[in-house]
Each structure stands twice: as structure tokens, then as C-alpha cells.
Specification:
With 475 residues, the chain is an alpha/beta fold. It has 13 helices and 21 strands. The protein has a five-stranded mixed barrel with strand order 1-2-3-4-5. The radius of gyration is 24 Å and the shape is globular. Bound molecules: flavin-adenine dinucleotide and nicotinamide-adenine-dinucleotide (NAD).
């Protein structure tokens, strides 16, 4: 007799494993299928985020930031060191250790919640049945009352620069390099290009980033993009805008990358080339021909606002559906879907999803940027506060950047916030919460913020919206 569950989740990344846990919390019987295999040949839960994305990249960003600070800031604090050297193998061992701890933590969480963690491939058949093929056994058909597809995404490969795993590489390979390349090329100045470009640049590589768009960080507020571009330039990251890569050829002396820019055809030679031009939904082998699931023209599973596919009882969440490819977006969709399956009312507020780029300075935003608000036609006001005027930022030797808040002229509703500077990714949470509670900037103005703290910059930027900043001259 086939096994039967209330909910079968395919994919144990941050979307899938969170959906599984929340469903189990509702008292439902749950199985979670995942086939992820790491480079050591071992299977692991946690998906891209824990194994090859958010977590390992942040581990290396932290290590490389410490190298940078030891080399450039310690002297200002009066701390003497000998020459700072880097042991990449130890750095990578730490990264791998963090990944191992967290992925086995997910396995433990599944167990603690009495979720059947099934290691192998899942395929959706007709009538909410799932074919499960274990890594070391025969396929079985599992009955499910509900199925949640959380299959994630995979890097986009360029035909003109196909991955070879050694010289032309994807973001996962770039996280596992054992030697600092002397010359590293990166295609795409998006989130991955900037985060990984920063890591290897701080560890001593000469990094050139080729970006097809003319505007730097086109998705960010222009004030934030301007500060960031200047800082990255100072740090030695060579970002070439309007650079359309036309070919990449790997050879004995490195990779020859050709691109076109406003001055015509150009060429650079690098030791390794990271291609980071976005990710595509990963649905390979996920759907039987008669599953009834619809894909859009870019391969995303078509869902409504509540992540329902057009097949009753089948939902899809995370990177394999529309919306930003962010771990926290997928997790919240997972919670929503599990609550809906349990008969509760639930929704995701897609207007209030924070974005963070973990470079130094860190970049974070939520809501609309100034150009978007302007285009919407709504009258607005803005307030900014520079970290150079923050006592805490000065003490931390991290005075680059600012907090900028945009609110509506008529009712002071917060429309967006844009931060570049220390702990931007932590500071943005205050605004996310404020927006979720429909707070105004006046609500933040009247909230006590600890002194001295970086959060005071959020307070002062809120005050500046009404020309009431206390620790910086108003407009
Ligand atoms: P995934 O994490 O991709 O998980 C999907 C899982 O499903 C995988 O384990 C896969 O093996 C499994 N699977 C797929 N198909 C099947 C099948 N048929 N059968 C069995 N198993 C299957 N986001 C952030 O929010 N913050 C960050 O700092 C951040 N940093 C990143 C850094 C890098 C280098 C990269 C590449 C991504 C980063 N992201 C970050 C994006 C984040 O990793 C993704 O948004 C997130 O992992 C998506 O979660 P998911 O659960 O939808 O999919
Ligand atoms: P991205 O969409 O952020 O950036 C891709 C960049 O490549 C864009 O700037 C694009 O203009 C450029 N590009 C595309 N084709 C090009 C070409 N042929 N030549 C030159 N440039 C080209 O994608 P990504 O950096 O690959 O990241 C993938 C996803 O992973 C993103 O959606 C992101 O949300 C997620 N991610 C998030 C974080 C984070 O939250 N901190 C970190 C890493 C990745």
C-alpha cells in the first residue's frame, strides 16, 4: 500500500522546509522530499540558500571584511599587527563547517516536527500523487492531499560563456575557490556579482565586473547607488557599465572575455570568470506531462496571490514562482500556504519585502525608491541622515552612507526606505515593521531610540522628512 500524507513538499530550501514545519505545526502529516547533493557527495537539506547561497556567501563576506579591516582600519585604532596574511583553506573550512551545522540543523528540525524527510527526487503526477525516487532505491508513488512545489532556482548559463566548472564558473563554484585568483572576471553587477566580487577583491584578487546595463544598481534608489559606486571604486572593484559580453573562451593562459561598450569592441584576460547574470526556476524533472501545472514563458510555475497553481491542492512557492528570488520571500510564502491548507486566513504582503546586499558598505531597502514614487504621481517628502553624523558609526569607524526615508505628502505614510552603511540589513527591519503596521514617519519620530546606536540614524532620517532633524542641519 502506498504511503499517504496530508502534505508532500518537494524541495527543502528555505521555502520548502519552512512550509513543511508550519504544516506539521498544524498537526498535519508531512513529507519533505529533497535531492540536493553537496560537492562532498553528501545529501543535505537547506537548498541553495544554506548550501550554496545566502549562508556560505555571508560566511566569506565576513571573513574577507575582517581581512580588509585588519589591513586598513586596525592602525587607526592603534592596533599593531604584522603583515596580515590569508589562509584560504582555513577560511573555506569555516564556511563549510557553518553550512554543515545549519543543514544538519534543518534535518534535526524536520525530525523534531515529525516530518518524514525523504532524500531523493520528487515528481508531481496527476491527481496530487508524487513519485519519489530515493537516492538508493526504487521509485514509489506517494499519495498526498496537498502538494507544495518548492524546487527553487539555478544559475542562468550564457551560451556565449558556458560553465566549465573550473575557469568559467557559477556562483557555487565561486564560493568554493581554494586559491585567490590573481585576476577574476565577473559577468553581471547584480547582487551576486557585487557580493562575490567584494569577497575575492578583499582577499587580493584584481576583480573586473562587466555589467550590461548603463546604470549601476538600477534597482536601487539613485542616492544609494551613487554612494555605493563611489565606495566600490575606492575599494578597487573595477565595474564596467554598459559592457555587453559577446564571448568568453577558456585557454591555457586564462579566459579571454570580449565585450562591447560605448567605445566599441573590448577584451580582457582573466584567470577565472564568474557568470552571475541571474537565476532561472529549476523545474527539470519536476512535473509529469499530465500534472496539469502551467509554466509561464520564462519557466516559472504560474500561481495566484495565494501561491495556488491551477491544479486543486497543488501550490508552488519560493524561487520557482514569480517575485523576488529571496529566501525570506519564499519562507513567508511557505508559512502562508501551510496556513491556508490548515484552513486559516493568510497572506503575504508583497509590497513590504526587504532587499539587502551584504557588501561593505551594506545596502538595504524596502518599498518604493524615489524614482518609483515620482513616477506614481503621488506627492512625497524625503528625509536623509548621514552616518558621518552618527556617534556610534564614528566609534565603529563606519561613517560611509546614509538612511533615506520617503513618505507621502498628504498622510505621511512611509513609502520606502533606502539605507547604505553599517548594519543596513539589520536597520531596515525597523522600517519593514513600521510599513507592515502602516506607521507614519511621525510614529518613528516619536519612538525612543537608544543612544548611541546606529538606529538613531533611522530616527533622525524620519525627523528630517519634516525638517525636524536634531543632530544634523535640515534642508
Ligand atoms: P532553493 O533554496 O533553491 O531550494 C530548492 C530545493 O529543492 C533544493 O534543495 C533542490 O535540490 C530541491 N529540488 C528541486 N527539485 C527537486 C525535485 N524534483 N526533487 C527533489 N528535490 C528537488 N537570498 C536572500 O534572501 N539573502 C541572501 O543573502 C542570499 N544570498 C544568496 C547568495 C547566492 C550566492 C545565491 C546563489 C543566492 C542567494 N540568495 C539569497 C537567494 C536564495 O538562495 C534563494 O532565494 C532561496 O534559496 C530560494 O529558496 P527556495 O526554497 O525557493 O529554493
Ligand atoms: P541579478 O538579477 O541580481 O543580477 C544580474 C545582473 O547581470 C544584472 O545587473 C544584469 O543587468 C546583468 N546581466 C545580465 N545579462 C548580462 C550580460 N550578458 N552581460 C553583462 N551583464 C549582464 O542576478 P544575480 O546576481 O545572478 O542573483 C540571482 C538572484 O539571487 C537574485 O535574484 C537575487 O535576488 C538572489 N540573491 C540575493 C542575495 C541577497 O539577498 N543578498 C544575494 C545573492 C543572490
Amino acid at each position: 500500500m502506498s504511503r499517504s500524507f496530508d502534505v508532500v513538499v518537494i524541495g527543502a530550501g528555505p521555502a520548502g522546509y519552512i512550509a513543511a514545519i508550519r504544516a506539521a505545526q498544524h498537526g498535519l502529516s508531512v513529507a519533505c522530499i529533497d535531492e540536493w547533493k553537496n560537492r562532498d557527495g553528501k545529501n543535505a537539506f537547506g537548498g541553495t540558500c544554506l548550501n550554496a547561497g545566502c549562508i556560505p556567501s555571508k560566511a566569506l563576506l565576513e571573513s574577507s571584511e575582517l581581512v580588509h579591516r585588519a589591513q586598513h582600519e586596525f592602525k587607526k585604532h592603534g592596533i599593531q599587527t604584522g603583515e596580515v596574511s590569508v589562509d584560504v583553506a582555513t577560511m573555506q573550512k569555516r564556511r563549510a563547517g557553518i553550512v554543515r551545522q545549519l543543514t544538519s540543523g534543518v534535518a534535526g528540525l524536520l525530525k523534531a516536527n515529525k516530518i518524514e524527510g525523504l532524500v531523493g527526487h520528487g515528481k508531481l503526477l496527476a491527481d496530487t500523487k508524487v513519485e519519489f525516487t530515493p537516492v538508493d532505491g526504487d521509485a514509489e508513488i506517494v499519495d498526498a492531499r496537498n502538494v507544495i512545489l518548492a524546487a527553487g532556482s539555478t544559475p542562468i548559463e550564457l551560451k556565449i560563456a558556458p560553465f566549465d566548472g573550473t575557469q568559467i564558473i557559477d556562483s557555487w563554484d565561486a564560493l568554493e575557490l581554494e586559491v585567490v585568483p590573481e585576476r577574476l572576471g565577473v559577468v553581471g553587477a547584480g547582487v551576486i556579482g557585487l557580493e562575490l566580487g567584494s569577497v575575492w577583491s578583499r582577499l587580493g584578487s584584481n576583480v573586473t565586473v562587466l555589467e550590461a546595463m548603463d546604470d549601476f544598481l538600477f534597482m536601487a534608489d539613485r542616492d544609494v547607488a551613487a554612494v555605493t559606486a563611489k565606495e566600490f571604486k575606492k575599494q578597487g572593484l573595477d565595474i564596467k557599465l554598459g559592457a555587453k559580453v559577446t564571448s568568453a573562451k577558456a585557454g591555457a593562459s586564462g579566459v579571454t572575455v570580449q565585450y562591447d561598450d560605448k567605445d566599441g569592441a573590448q577584451s580582457i584576460e582573466v584567470d577565472q570568470l564568474v557568470v552571475a547574470v541571474g537565476r532561472r526556476p529549476f523545474v527539470d524533472g519536476l512535473l509529469a506531462d499530465d500534472s496539469g501545472i502551467q509554466l509561464d514563458e520564462r519557466g516559472f510555475i504560474v500561481v495566484d496571490d495565494e501561491c495556488r497553481t491551477r491544479v486543486k491542492g497543488v501550490y508552488a512557492i519560493g524561487d520557482c514562482v514569480r517575485g523576488p528570488m529571496l529566501a525570506h520571500k519564499g519562507s513567508e510564502e511557505g508559512v502562508m500556504v501551510a496556513d491556508l491548507i490548515a484552513g486559516e486566513t493568510a497572506e503575504v504582503n508583497y509590497n513590504v519585502i526587504p532587499s539587502v546586499i551584504y557588501t561593505s558598505p551594506e545596502i538595504a531597502w524596502v518599498g518604493q525608491n524615489e524614482a518609483e514614487v515620482k513616477a506614481s504621481g503621488r506627492a512625497y517628502k524625503t528625509g536623509s541622515f548621514p552616518f558621518a553624523a552618527s556617534g556610534r558609526a564614528k566609534a565603529m569607524e563606519q561613517t560611509i552612507g546614509m538612511v533615506k526615508i520617503i513618505s507621502a505628502q498628504d498622510d505621511d505614510e512611509i513609502l520606502g526606505a533606502h539605507i547604505v552603511g553599517p548594519m543596513a540589513g539589520e536597520l531596515i527591519s525597523e522600517i519593514v515593521l513600521a510599513m507592515e503596521f502602516s506607521a507614519s514617519t511621525e510614529d518613528i519620530q516619536r519612538t525612543i531610540h537608544a543612544h548611541p546606536s546606529l538606529a538613531e540614524a533611522v530616527h533622525e532620517a524620519s525627523l528630517a522628512v519634516d525638517n525636524k532633524a536634531l543632530n544634523y542641519p535640515n534642508k
